[in-house]
Amino acid sequence: MEITTIHHQAEWNNTLKTLPYAHVLQTWEWGEFKRETTGWIPNRLMFKDGGDVVAMASVLTRCIGPAAMMYVPKGPALRYENVDLAQQVIKELQKVARFAIWLKIDPDVVIGTGIPGEDDAAESPEGLAIQNMLKKSGWRFSDDQVQFRNTVRIDLTQTEDDILMGMSQNTRRKVRTAEKKDVTVRAATLDDLDTLYSLYRVTGERDNFLIRPPAYYEKAWRDFMRQGLAHALIAEFENRPIAHVILFHFGKTCWYFYGASSNDERNRMPNYLLQWEAMKWAKAQGYEIYDMWGAPNEFDESDSMWGVYQFKQGFRGTTTRTLGAWDYAPYSILYSGYNHLRKALRR
């Protein structure tokens, strides 16, 4: 297997989008965003077999003194149904990480659908084969899951009517309530960045989640919108912004990354209409999957994601359980020490 480092944005993105499991967090732009905002340095690796590109991995690296931490966010991208190919790529990544404290991967490999224990739950033999391969290769299921492990996905290859009629009766009613109560939806522009952040800050305060400084989000949203990788929608009532969604999109998938709403006019159900308009926009652009980006790790009411999950379930997508994050640690003592320190600092 031949491995080359890619230094050209167009070559990287254009090739990446042709691979299965291509993700927006593996794009050139995401690597640059993390370099400029959090100090992670991207190294973009292309794997070839017989001249054909079979895998790609944007490996982010951050150093603490002489030691390195490495992360392949939502990657690497390859055909995971081919377990032998996946194992070859994993072995090459282990070589890249031979002096690191850890290397983390978390590709969107599906290990099952539905809620475990319920009648519609099903396991994925292909995903479980990858999970088993990682275990045998010395990887560990990470207790630091950076991205959402589970999600809800809507099949956009259906007709609009089928998507709408597939929603729960209550959700469909709330979509129509927003329309009847004079909520309108428009595309946001770069001039709306302050509005987007203001609504997001209000939501963070109301729902008690930590948000980063304005510059972090404005850079992400601005840069990705300029590159044609993000799209924002704003719901308004009487020309006043009352809610928004920010979508990231790449390859065959559109992700609902950010959502926010004001404390006013919530009875008008703007969030329901926004999701429907987002799905219609994504379908019109040719995307095949609308990923609602996040579901509980544990499917019960004790999970902090349960309330949001109940909202997403109303759109009747497929609850999808993925592989999650796995760590390769060549030096167990360093890895254990790092994790103890990380947990202590977090406390």
Structure report:
The protein has eleven helices and 17 strands. The chain is α+β, with helices and mostly antiparallel strands and 347 residues long. The strands form two sheets. Strands 8-7-16-10-15-14-13-12-11 form a nine-stranded mixed β-sheet, with helices on both faces. Strands 1, 2, 3, 4, 5, 6, 9 and 17 form an eight-stranded mixed β-sheet that branches. Helix 6 (169-180) packs across helix 9.
In short:
This protein is an alpha+beta fold and 347 residues long. It has helices spanning 9-16, 28-38, 83-96, 125-136, 160-166, 169-180, 193-207, 214-226, 270-284, 306-313, 332-346, and strands at 2-5, 41-49, 52-64, 67-72, 77-78, 100-105, 110-113, 122-123, 140-141, 150-155, 183-187, 230-237, 240-250, 253-261, 289-291, 318-322, 326-328.
Q: Give start-end ranges of low-pLDDT stretches.
A: none
Radius of gyration: 21 Å
Question: Helical proportion?
Answer: 25-40%
Structural class estimated from helices and strands: alpha+beta
Outline:
globular
| Spatial sequence of strands, sheet with the most strands | 8-7-16-10-15-14-13-12-11
Strand content: 25-35%
Mean pLDDT: 95
> How many strand elements?
17
Report how far the terminal alpha carbons are from each other.
Answer: 44 Å
Q: What is the N-to-C order of secondary-structure elements (H for helix, E for strand)?
A: EHHEEEEHEEEHEEHHEHHEEEHEHEEH
DSSP helix count? 11
Largest sheet: number of strands, sense, barrel closure: 9 strands, mixed
